[in-house]
Design goal:
Layout (H helix, E strand, L loop, with lengths): L1 E6 L6 H10 L4 H8 L7 E10 L2 E10 L9 H9 L5 H22 L14 H17 L3 E4 L2 E2 L1 E2 L1 E4 L2 E4 L3 H6 L5 E2 L5 E2 L3 H10 L2 E2 L6 E9 L10 E8 L7 H4 L3 E11 L5 H12 L4 E8 L5 E9 L4 H11 L6 E8 L2 E9 L2 E10 L2 E7 L1 H11 L3 H18 L2
Parallel strand pairs: 1-4, 4-11, 5-9
Antiparallel strand pairs: 1-13, 2-3, 6-10, 7-8, 12-13, 14-16, 14-17, 15-16, 18-19, 19-20
């Protein structure tokens, strides 16, 4: 299978990704042709060979003729992508990235994803960068995505919201759980678009996975600091599906840590608060189980599933926020199905569908509750009707692909 490794020693942005793809051999005419099906106008794309320090790279640019861009909502961007002639894989990946970005912006601004009005990231150039990158990965045949630690930069940047710290708040939210570092050059090195792409696509952050390197491409950033190659490197590699390290390479299995504790003297209201704080601190899952404790007291077994890197802060959270006197920890292996988000159009509107696959097999799918609930209220119909409609559309899509 073909994989890509994002080598982000100089950060990452949408245009750097597309530039690296063009450097790898993606045909710009094929890219231009597919992007035209989005129905957007007033822009042109181009590429040119450049040098960043000692490295030859490709600079991708989107020139927008209209200076004023509409403040598009997530629904607007969904419609633009869904109504195009792009492949379902490109559509679902593109929409998932914008949804991830909308969720991050919503959290930062204290609102909901549907109410977010995209400005910089909703402009034509950002849509072209994001969708263009998904087209490029499809043309390159990439199936799995991995990423290095990210150089985010330092200092302050000027935005539509005024001066913001680096990384920008939305970027920091998108990279929650990913390894990052500032570097020694002031400025923004990871844009919200770049962060959203790797946060959505990548299965693992860290060193280069075991693979046979097939090619390397370099996408240039806009700045050209002295003695520093401001480029993103994409390493394209091949991994045999029957190699002996599927856990490390394909993320079908991973090491996790189980943290649990028995509690019989805590206000039940606190459990919800602790669960929310645990998820915010990076917990993979949190759940409670009723248990019978000593002296016949009813109690609760509170269990937290954690990445090894997050264990200490989650233990500290439990010791601080609950009445427990101690916790237990033990290693476990977790095998997870590949999960993607796809979007279907129903008679009531667009609904995201969470899809679980084992390789090429689709094992099950579930319409997103929030989308169905919102459409049920807007259309004044029962929730189960919207859920059934979304399931029927996706089931028909599956049958059509057989």
């Amino acid at each position: 299978m073909r994989v890509v490794y994002f080598d982000c020693f100089a950060g990452i942005s949408g245009d750097m990704i597309v530039g690296a793809q063009l450097d790898l051999g993606v045909d710009i005419e094929s890219l231009r042709d597919q992007l035209s099906s989005l129905g957007l106008s007033g822009y042109e794309i181009s590429s040119s060979p450049v040098r960043r320090n000692a490295i030859a790279a490709t600079k991708f640019e989107v020139v927008v003729h209209q200076q004023q861009q509409p403040a598009r909502t997530l629904a607007d961007i969904r419609s633009i992508v869904i109504e195009s002639n792009l492949s379902e894989a490109v559509k679902s990946r593109s929409i998932a990235i914008f949804e991830r970005l909308a969720d991050a912006e919503a959290k930062v601004h204290g609102t909901t994803a549907e109410k977010i009005h995209f400005h910089e990231v909703g402009a034509v150039d950002s849509i072209i960068d994001t969708v263009g990158a998904m087209i490029g990965f499809e043309l390159l045949g990439v199936e799995h995505f991995f990423c290095s630690p990210l150089r985010v930069g330092t200092g302050l940047i000027e935005t539509e919201h005024g001066l913001l710290p680096v990384p920008a708040p939305a970027t920091a939210e998108l990279l929650r759980g990913a390894p990052v570092y500032a570097g020694d050059i002031e400025g923004e090195f990871v844009t919200p678009t770049g962060a959203a792409i790797v946060a959505t696509l990548c299965e693992k952050f860290g060193t280069v996975p075991p693979m046979r390197i097939v090619n390397a491409g370099y996408g240039a950033g806009s700045r050209d600091p002295k003695n520093f190659p401001n480029v993103l490197r994409l390493l394209i590699g091949e991994i045999e599906e029957d190699e002996e390290t599927p856990a490390e390479v394909c993320a079908t299995s991973e090491k996790v840590v189980v943290i649990d504790t028995n509690i019989d003297d805590m206000n039940p209201q606190v459990y919800g608060f602790v669960m929310e704080r645990a998820f915010a601190a990076g917990a993979l899952d949190v759940f409670t189980t009723p248990v019978q404790m000593k002296k016949d007291r009813p109690g609760v077994l509170l269990t937290v599933l954690s990445k090894p890197s997050d264990v200490e802060k989650l233990i500290e959270l439990l010791l601080r926020e609950t009445t427990t006197l101690g916790v237990r920890c033990y290693d476990a292996n977790r095998r997870a199905l590949e999960r993607t988000i796809e979007t279907v159009e129903t008679e009531y509107g667009a609904v995201r569908v969470k899809v679980a696959r084992d390789g090429a097999r689709t094992l099950h799918f579930q319409p997103e509750y929030e989308d169905c609930a919102r459409l049920a209220i807007e259309s004044n119909v029962p929730l189960i009707e919207v859920q059934a409609a979304a399931s029927a559309v996706y089931r028909a899509r599956l049958k059509g692909g057989e």
